[in-house]
TrEMBL record:
It comes from the Bacteria. InterPro entries: ADC_dom_sf, DUF2071. This is DUF2071 domain-containing protein. Transmembrane segments: none annotated.
Length: 234
């Protein structure tokens, strides 16, 4: 995908860990808005939990502000096709540690952001992510410790590795209309990774059953991104 020239937001995504599970299509389809269908693989669809550090968040015409521009975020997403057959992602939830960022994302694009108490701590190759939502009775959240390994040799990366980590479009619903937003980023440098500890109830809070087994895991130091302007999907 060509780099987006007219961006509404610039971001750096750092210290990313990708956890993915395969779900039955029937568990995911009822949670999608009209116009989107699961992007299936052998009658299953992938659901991903991605914790990372959001950094240097700013509009392209303004400098970043230290407190507002850097914070942990975790998203829970699945892979879909729009009415025109275009592939993209749909977010069940996005947890963020900055209330202004949550308010702006919900107010402009109606993205399902949740204000959460979050932390991200690193120790060499190990990263620990924690989150707990404010203003929810059970405080849905997670605790993950993951260790990054060596980079994958290019020849060992398969189609599914690229598919789960390289998506250039998100879908959301604003005022009852399906909206798409293009997201540009260079190719990820993907590393092997292992989960040392995982507790989470984000999937349950989204209405999904418990993840079926151990996740497929990747990690990356991060990428620079440009977020495009929203467009109505006809």
């Amino acid at each position: 995908m060509a780099e987006i020239r007219t961006a509404m937001m610039i971001q750096q995504w750092r210290r990313m860990t990708f956890l993915h599970w395969r779900y039955p299509v029937g568990a995911v389809r009822p949670l999608l808005p009209d116009g989107l269908v699961p992007d299936t693989d052998d009658d299953e669809v992938w659901v991903g939990m991605l914790p990372f550090l959001m950094d240097e968040v700013r509009p392209p015409w303004l400098p970043g502000l230290p407190y507002l521009s850097t914070f942990p975020e975790t998203n829970l997403r699945t892979y879909v096709r729009g009415p025109d057959g275009q592939a993209g992602i749909y977010f069940f939830s996005l947890d963020a540690a900055r209330l202004p960022a949550v308010a702006v994302a919900r107010g402009t694009l109606n993205l399902p952001y949740r204000w959460s108490r979050m932390s991200l701590r690193t120790d060499g190759a190990m990263t620990e992510y924690r989150g707990s939502r404010f203003a929810e009775p059970r405080g849905a959240g997670y605790r993950l410790r993951a260790r990054a390994g060596e980079p994958f040799p290019i020849e060992e990366l398969g189609q599914i590795d690229h598919y789960l980590t390289t998506q250039y479009r998100l879908y959301t619903v604003v005022a009852g209309r399906l909206i798409s937003v293009d997201v540009w980023h260079p190719s990820w440098v993907l590393h092997r990774a292992e989960v040392l500890h995982l507790e989470q109830d984000l999937t349950a809070a989204a209405g999904l059953p418990a993840p079926p087994g151990a996740p497929l895991v990747h990690s990356s130091p991060g990428v620079r991104t440009r977020i495009g302007l929203p467009r109505l999907v006809r």
